[in-house]
Structures are given as structure tokens and as C-alpha cells.
Write a structure and sequence with these properties.
Blueprint lengths: L1 E4 L5 H12 L3 E6 L15 E5 L17 E4 L11 H18 L4 E7 L8 H13 L5 E7 L2 E2 L4 H12 L2 E4 L6 E2 L2 E2 H10 L9 E5 L5 E2 H11 L5 E4 L5 H11 L4 H11 L10 H5 L6 H13 L32 E8 L3 H9 L11 H13 L20 E2 L2 E7 L4 E6 L5 E10 L3 E10 L1 H27 L1
Parallel strand pairs: 1-2, 1-4, 2-3, 4-5, 5-6, 6-11, 7-10, 8-13
Antiparallel strand pairs: 9-12, 14-19, 15-16, 16-17, 17-18, 18-19
Helix pairs in contact: 1-5, 2-3, 4-6, 6-10, 7-8
């Protein structure tokens, strides 16, 4: 079958794609920026890519003909507290019109469970998108999921941060809200299972794991699996805004994402009964086993996708390629060079930078910069990196976004997603045989941008000089 996959660079899309290829389907991936996708990872001749931005006018979007089914996996929850509903509406309307013109037979949409009368903005938006897609000329199948548990998922990483960092937690009332978590493996099985199953056409199904748990129970069960003793005290006085700040500072999520998550966590997310799992022959994975499976992947460095792969900086919405040419005019630069004794060893060090490895020199200052970024509403350092040794364009690396990762030519180019009065790039490359060049570029925005550069310049002298020396050793 010929399948169209939207959201191919997202958390779910990256999990679903290998399974579709394994099942023998021809897959066309819709991506906004081909530079964000590691095409080399897939050698299948049945995989093609097209660049499509569903925020463009519907009449400007053309999809290939002959498509049997399409997956709609586009979400904008991390794009901003106030803007994501409009973005999701525009994307859904453009996709509906384009899919109709392409005469697609079935569209499969992954939504959220919306069984309560009072819903969060996030869940209302998901429900509205479902209504928009349902107006198309194709058959719509909607799968509604709640908390998704798997290596790299936002829910998993939030729970992990809270449990591993806080021996004692003073928490808001929403920790007593009931939910029905589902393993990422089961989500992918459901998505694949309903493909062109006529029994599912024009239907919506809630999908969840075998257990209904409160968020407090999820935290305590996670702690037990990790062999940790944790104490949780639920208090009634913590407002949603305080809860959002609490989640934002303790975990790696952005503030806008924290707000949307907290508002959704106040809503009970429990599945309405259906027989879809029996129809598809799916065996549901328990919450405990989903945690164990996630850590198996982490320990084997086999995390396929992460929630942080979604773009945080709106500047990069125009495409990574437009920022790969580092500007020369109107910029401040810190350029340092040194000869290295082993090009291969230095390259391996560059490719392992950040995350748990750190930045090789003055890591406390890097941590301080990450904390300051969090205070001002930035992403901080907690996003880390997906793999300790490999890095690809489009991925996050602490508070940087990877623009270029050319290991063959020993060049790594990063773009800052921290809060700055301007734009910043950090580049490592080896030229002239064994000359390591380390370049920090800052394009200031107004007077404050220039004052910022001069204020941090003394620290750059310490950090960048030390980092270059460590990389060359």
C-alpha cells in the first residue's frame, strides 16, 4: 500500500515509520524541512520525502496521487501557550483540502481522550482538529490516547525527572487525577492495525493501557521500579500557574508545554470501552512493563525519537538550511584554533559533547547559564541529547539545535535555542589536515544585544579556551 506519513520528524512518526516499512508499505513522508530528517538511517527504496508545510495556503499544497491512506500526526502544543490552537486549526484545514484533492481513501488521526465535559485548551484543540478532519471526503479513523509511556516521550521524561531528582515532593491536587497510560509500543500497534480496516472507517476509539492510575500512583510505581524511596505530599493550594512553574523548573519541558500539560492533567483521562484491541489482536502492556521497556532502550542507546525533537525556536520554522550559512556581517565572533594530535579522537569528542558528557570545561558555568536561561523562560540544559555518541541534524543538544552534523568532514554546527537578545551559532570543524577551529558567532539585536555580548565576553574567554584545549588533548 502507498502511505502518506505527516509528522515524520515527531515522536510518534519516527516510531511508526520503521514498522510501516517493515510491513512492506511504500511510505511518503511529509516533512517541513528535509534537513531535520536523518535520511541515511533508512536504506529502503520504498521511502520517499516531500517538503510540505501545512501552514501554507491549502491551494498551494499538492500531495501525490495514488495514496491509499494517510497518517495525520501534526501537533503544535509546544509552539506557544496562546498560538497552538490556531496553528492546529490551520494545519488541519489545509491537510483536509489537500487530502481531498489527492483522493486519499483513509486518514488516521492520533488525538487525545476527550470524555470529560470540561477540557483543557490542548484537548479542546485536539477535539476541534478531529471535527475538521471528519469533514473531508475520505474515511477518518481517530485513535484517542492519553499519557504515552516510552523512552523519549514527554510523559516518561517528566516522571523520570520528578522521581530521580526529588526525594520529597509537595505536589498540586491534580496528582490525584486518574489517567490510563499506554505504552508507545501499543500506540504504534494500534496505528498500524487500523490501516485500511473498513470496520474502523468513520469511527473514533479510545486507546489506553490495562490499568487506570492516578499521577501519584504513576510516580510511586516508577520510583519502586527504579529502587528509589519517594514521599509525595498533595496540597490543595497550588495554583495552575505555580504548578506550571514547578514542572518547568524541575523537568526539561518548556514553560508553554508545562502550562498545557498541567491544564490537561487536571482532566480525567480514562478510556471509554471498545473492542478495538480484540479486533486487532493487541496485547496491552502494563505500566510497569512499559517503564522497564523504556529503560531497556535507554541503556542500549536505542532511543528512536524524543519529544524534544520538536522545534522550540520559532526562528527555525523557516527551515534549518536558512541558518546553516552563518552570517559574517554585523556579528561578534570568538574564533579559536589549535592543532590536534588525533583527528579521529577529537572528532569523537566533538560528537559526544553535551548531555551527560558535559562541555569538557567549566561545566558549572554551563549549568549556571542553563539555570539563568530557565529563569528567563528558556529551555535550559535539561533536554540533554538522545544518544551519547551519535548526533544528527534537527536534534536537540542541551540548549542548542543541531543544524549540521557532518562527521565524515568533522564539522558540527549548532544554533542556540536559549533566550538571547540576538542569535548565536557554535561551530566545530577540522580543516587543513589537523587544525581544529572553534567559532562562536553572535548576531546582536539592538543595543541590549551588544551589551549582552560584552558582559559575557570574559566568561567566553575562560570557557571556550578551556573547551578547545580539552577537545585537542
Amino acid at each position: 500500500m502507498k502511505i502518506l506519513l505527516t509528522g515524520a520528524t515527531g515522536y510518534i512518526g519516527k516510531r511508526l515509520l520503521p514498522l510501516l516499512l517493515e510491513e512492506g508499505h511504500e511510505v511518503i513522508c511529509c516533512i517541513r524541512d528535509k534537513n531535520r530528517f536523518n535520511i541515511e538511517k533508512y536504506s529502503s527504496e520504498r521511502l520517499t520525502f516531500i517538503e510540505v508545510n501545512f501552514l501554507d495556503a491549502a491551494e498551494d499544497i499538492t500531495l501525490p496521487t495514488g495514496i491509499d491512506a494517510a497518517y495525520y500526526l501534526i501537533h503544535s502544543m509546544s509552539s506557544g501557550e496562546k498560538s497552538f490552537e490556531e496553528l492546529e486549526k490551520r494545519s488541519a484545514e489545509a491537510f483536509r483540502e489537500a487530502a481531498g484533492r489527492a483522493k486519499i481513501r483513509q486518514v488516521i488521526y492520533l488525538s487525545g481522550i476527550v470524555n470529560e465535559e470540561t477540557l483543557s485548551k490542548h484537548l479542546i484543540s485536539r477535539k476541534n482538529v478531529e471535527a475538521i478532519l471528519a469533514e473531508g471526503s475520505y474515511a477518518l479513523t481517530t485513535l484517542r490516547a492519553g499519557i504515552i509511556v516510552g523512552s523519549g516521550s514527554a510523559s516518561f521524561e517528566i516522571i523520570r525527572d520528578l522521581v530521580e531528582k526529588l526525594p520529597v515532593m509537595i505536589t498540586p491536587r491534580w496528582l490525584n487525577t486518574r489517567t490510563q497510560p499506554i505504552a508507545i509500543r501499543n500506540v504504534v500497534e494500534f496505528l498500524s492495525g487500523v490501516l485500511l480496516r473498513s470496520e474502523t472507517f468513520g469511527q473514533s476509539f479510545d486507546i489506553g493501557g490495562p490499568e487506570i492510575l492516578t499521577y501519584k500512583e504513576m510516580l510511586l510505581r516508577f520510583a519502586k521500579i527504579r529502587g528509589l524511596k519517594r514521599f509525595i505530599m498533595v496540597v490543595p493550594v497550588m495554583t495552575p500557574r505555580i504548578s506550571s512553574y514547578w514542572l518547568y523548573f524541575v523537568t526539561a519541558v518548556s514553560y508553554s508545554l508545562a502550562v498545557n500539560l498541567v491544564n490537561s492533567m487536571k482532566v480525567e483521562i480514562v478510556c471509554r470501552p471498545n473492542k478495538l484491541k480484540d479486533l486487532l489482536g493487541i496485547k496491552l502492556i502494563s505500566y510497569d512493563d512499559s517503564i522497564r521497556l523504556a529503560f531497556d532502550k535507554i541503556e542500549q542507546n536505542q532511543v528512536i525519537s524524543s519529544w524534544s525533537d520538536a522545534l522550540t525556536s520559532t526562528v527555525l520554522n523557516s527551515g534549518i538550511v536558512k541558518h546553516m550559512e552563518v552570517p559574517q556581517n554585523g556579528c561578534f565572533k570568538d574564533v579559536r584554533k589549535v592543532r590536534v594530535s588525533s583527528v579521529s579522537k577529537t572528532t569523537e569528542k566533538i560528537w559526544a559533547i553535551g548531555g551527560n558528557t558535559g562541555w569538557y570545561y567549566a561545566n558549572r558555568l554551563w549549568s549556571l547559564r542553563g539555570f539563568i536561561d530557565k529563569v528567563f523562560g528558556g529551555v535550559g540544559l535539561r533536554r540533554g541529547r538522545k544518544d551519547p555518541k551519535n548526533i544528527y541534524a534537527g536534534e536537540t543538544l542541551d540548549f542548542w539545535r543541531v543544524l549540521l552534523a557532518d562527521k565524515k568532514n568533522s564539522r558540527l554546527l549548532l544554533y542556540a535555542e536559549m533566550k538571547l537578545p540576538g542569535e548565536a551559532w557554535l561551530e566545530f570543524k577540522i580543516t587543513d589536515g589537523n587544525l581544529l577551529e572553534q567559532t562562536a558567532t553572535f548576531r546582536p539585536l539592538g543595543l541590549f544585544g551588544r551589551l549582552y555580548w560584552y558582559s559575557v565576553f570574559p566568561f567566553h574567554g575562560i570557557i571556550f579556551r578551556g573547551m578547545l584545549k580539552k577537545l585537542a588533548e
